[in-house]
Each structure stands twice: as C-alpha cells, then as structure tokens.
Amino acid sequence: xxxxxxxxxxxxxxxxxxxxxxxxxxxxxxxxxMNHKQLVKLGSYLLKxxxxxxxxxxxxxxxxxxxxxCGGEIVYDCRQKSLELSKxxxxxxxxxxxxxxxxxxxxxxxxxxxxxxxxxxxxxxxNPYVVFKxxxxxxxxxxxxxxxxxxxxxxxxxxWQRTCQRMENICSACHQRKLRVLIDAEESWTQGVxxxxxxxxxxxxNGDTPIVFNTYQMYRKDMYQNLTHAFDxxxxxxxxxxxxxxxxxxxxxxxERAEEMGYEDPIQPDxxxxxxxxxxxxxxxxxxxxxIELCCGTHNEASTYYLMELMSNGNITPNDPRIYxxxxxGMSDNISFNLANAGYNVAKYLPYGPVEDVIPYLIRRTEENxxxxxxxxxxxxxxxxxxxxxxxxxxxxx
Length: 398
Ligand SMILES: Cc1cc2nc3c(=O)[nH]c(=O)nc-3n(C[C@H](O)[C@H](O)[C@H](O)COP(=O)(O)OP(=O)(O)OC[C@H]3O[C@@H](n4cnc5c(N)ncnc54)[C@H](O)[C@@H]3O)c2cc1C
Hints:
By secondary structure, the protein is of the alpha/beta class. 57% of the residues lie in helices and 12% in strands. Flavin-adenine dinucleotide (FAD) is lined by residues 184-185, 215, 217, 219, 246-251, 267-268, 270-271, 274, 297-300, 326-328, 349, 372, 375.
C-alpha cells in the first residue's frame, strides 16, 4: 500500500500530546479494566440493575467511563474538551446522545437541543458537523410499523407528522447556516424509514452544497448497492450525496433478531467481507467525489491509510473540504491526532447528555472496546507505550 510516509499511527507522542500524565494514567487504568470481557459483561449488568434500583452510582460513572467518552451533561460542559481538540486542529461533533425514549415531550426536547447546537456551531467554526439520530426525535415503534407497511392509528399518524416537521426544522436550520448535518444509522428494521426521510431532505437541501448526510453501515450485505443506487439518484436529480461511512454498531442485535424472526441475516458473513465493502465504498466515494462529500467514521487504521492513499492517488489534498475523517471521543487518538497533525480534516464525536440517559451509548463503547479483537489492547498498548516513553524521557532529564 502506498501509505503517505509522513503519517504514522504509532507516534504516541503526537497521539497523546493533549493528555497530561495524570489523565493518561487514569485512561490506562480504565482501558485495562475494559480489556476483561467478563468484567465488562458483569459491570454492564450491575450498572443496569443499579440504575433501575436508583442506587447512587452516578458519581462513579461520571468520574470514570462518562469522563472518558463524553463531554458533559449539558452542551456548555463540552466547551473545554472541544477547545482542547481545536488546539490540535481537530473539530468537534457535538452529539446529544439521549436514546430509547418513546415520549413526544422528550422528542421535542431533543429537537430543541439540536437546534441549540446548530446555533452554537454557526458561531463556533470548530464544529464542522451537527449530528443526530432520528430515533432521538421519533418513535422507534412507529418507524418499525411504517417500515413493515402497517397502518398507523390517527394518533401515531400525528406523531409521525410531528417527527417529519422536527426533521425538516433541523435540516432547514442547517441549510440556512450552511452547516452539514449527519443523520446516524440505526437498526435495519427502522433504517429504511430513516433513509427515506433523509433522502427527502437531501433532495430539498443538497442542491447547491451537501448539507444533509446519510450513514451507510457497510456490515450490511446490501449496503454497497444502496450507496451506489443513492448516488445514481442524487446525480440524476442534481443534488449532492452526503455520505458518512461506518462499519455498523448493532451486529449482535441484528443477528439475534434475524434468527428469532426467521429471516436472512442482513449482516456480512464475516469481518473480512465488511472490511472489503467498507474499502470498496471508500473507493467509490473518492472516484465520484465531484458529486459526493465523505465523512469516514472509523477507528480502523488500514481503512484510514487506504483513504489517504486514495486521496493521494486522486491528487486530492489532505485538507480538501470534501473529505473528513471522524472518530469517537476517547478512542483512537493515535489516528485523530496524527491525521490532524499531517493536515487532514478530522473531527471527533463528543457525546453529551444526562449521565443516566447516555448509559446505552457508554455500554456500547465499553462492549465494543472489549468485543472487537485487538481494539482495547491496541488502545491499552499505545497508552502503555506513551507512559513508558514519558518515563524514559524524565529519566534522561535527571
Ligand atoms: C465517527 C463515527 C460515527 C459512527 N456512527 C455510527 C452510526 O451512525 N451508526 C452505526 O451503526 N455505527 C456508527 N459508528 C460505529 C461504527 O459503526 C463501528 O461500530 C465502530 O466504529 C467500529 O468499527 P471500525 O470501522 O471503527 O473498526 P473495526 O474494529 O475494524 O471494525 C469493527 C466492526 O466490524 C464489523 N464486524 C466485526 N466482526 C464482524 C463479523 N464477524 N462479521 C461482519 N462484520 C463484523 C462490525 O461492524 C464491527 O463494529 C460510528 C463510528 C464512528 C467512529
């Protein structure tokens, strides 16, 4: 692979340049715990029970995994971490991460919160994207019904109309301010509805410049074809396709549901097939960059190097505004900081929200760091390496 020589994800001095020793040691301890699969399993279970019983575990969560992966409980709390990232040329994607409610009042509250982030992003150029999940402003149950072509009750119909209005308000506010908005991808049994609404918004607002971005989960067997089809439609309808590429976060639930309900597993047969389609999709986006803007959401080093190689071969400069690399806060700083240091466009999702409401997100992060071969030990190993480098440097000074 023709990797640009100036960037190495092994350079821990750049990767952790923003982290003082005390913070790095705490990260080392936390990633060390996450390394243990059984401990994470037990911890996730106990956490859910403790929250149900209203035991006072919030301070413990706040000082540990919440501090590691989130910006704070309210948007204002994120300011310090966002400023910190911007010092190193990294943008922040403020992510109000409240999930899983079925309440109209909560949906309105989330929509208002997102509109607040849009206003903030307008005045703070370090926020290159706004992001949200449709399930934050819509009922999952109603979306699943719509996707299955089941008839909605009059009340459900009203609720869905409100969702469409919230979506339109958010996308229109972004359009007015020329801000890009990423619509996160969710489970396959509601994603069809997310897609439909997102493409409606794209056709309205992406005519002159890409504003609305859909997310493509390449762990799905049908996703490469969905992507190329979406591009064909965007091209023939004269609007830009906003693309966020990810591998996909809900593999276990997707497989469990498919088995339970007796339909074909929508997920690729193995990791290699997901990796192949992810890279194929990167190639497709770069080859069609005249009509696409790309946000590459991954912690996978090989795919990141591959995108850099595709850019280099296509004479696309690292800071070309049509391509961004994105990682989640608290993960893969070796990729984010080294890319930004080499002049690439990089941003990190910074989730925020009340501690109890971001628990599903936190559990996904800890399980992901445990479940995926290599990832936690990779983070853990890099932090260990940097602590050793700093200790050796301190020794030299003595
Ligand atoms: C900025 C950003 C935004 C994101 N937004 C979303 C989003 O909107 N929706 C969403 O679903 N996820 C989202 N994710 C999470 C993402 O989908 C992945 O779960 C996560 O990033 C891990 O994949 P990876 O590419 O980083 O790395 P890797 O560690 O290389 O890949 C792990 C991924 O490979 C796939 N995989 C693993 N084992 C197998 C197997 N046996 N068979 C088939 N596939 C397998 C799974 O998708 C798994 O998550 C986001 C991630 C980032 C960094």
